[in-house]
Amino acid sequence: MTMTIAIPLAGGKLCSHFGHCQEFAFVGVADGKITGVTKKTPPPHEPGVFPAWLAGEGADTILAGGMGERAQALFRQNGVKVVCGVAAGAPEEVVEAYLKGTLVTGANPCNHDEDGHQCHGG
User: Where is each Dinitrogenase iron-molybdenum cofactor biosynthesis domain found (predicted)?
Assistant: First the structure.
């Protein structure tokens, strides 16, 4: 089985706020093992852009810290599985834990950010 897992990054690690990421890591997986990591700069962030762009780039799963409900729905509409509440970490470490079934997920921090504003996500 092959898959491509997308991870939003800031400073080389999983970004806790999906819509604020600087780049995405695309982690290729075949037969339960990482086959490669490619980093790409996303188009300018506007509502609805990231889900369509990531699906078009071949992502079938996204591991994210926080993401708004609308973005999650748009990902699902584009055939991309969403896993939220993932703690910051290097893309390879996060994907390894996901593949082993040991990835710990917490609350989706995108329900409200530190300032009490709603997170917009995709």
Answer: 11-100
